[in-house]
């Protein structure tokens, strides 16, 4: 039985600082694959959650990330 409390729960807020910021979700498992992508324009915000299917998130472009660990800005 899977303990989903360890998979679900961590949220990441991504705020686009420019037009065309791309957010890509990557799968869990033996082979990592892209499974979802979104494009954000300047000022748009997306709230993402790690799940049983999503193990990583890749971000392209200028963005600010807000997590329970603090704020991070991409460098470009």
From TrEMBL:
Native source species: Desulforamulus ferrireducens
Biological process per Gene Ontology, one example term = DNA-templated transcription termination
Name the UniProt key words of this record, in alphabetical order. RNA-binding, Transcription, Transcription regulation
Its recorded name reads Transcription attenuation protein MtrB
Domain Tryptophan RNA-binding attenuator protein, chain residue ranges per copy: 9-75
Q: Which family does it belong to?
A: Belongs to the MtrB family.
> GO molecular-function annotation terms?
RNA binding
Could you describe the subunit structure of this protein? Answer: Oligomer of 11 identical subunits arranged in doughnut-like structure.
Keyword ATP-binding present in the record's keywords: the answer is no
Q: Which InterPro entries match?
A: MtrB, Trp_RNA-bd_attenuator-like_dom, Trp_RNA-bd_attenuator_dom
Superkingdom in the source lineage: Bacteria
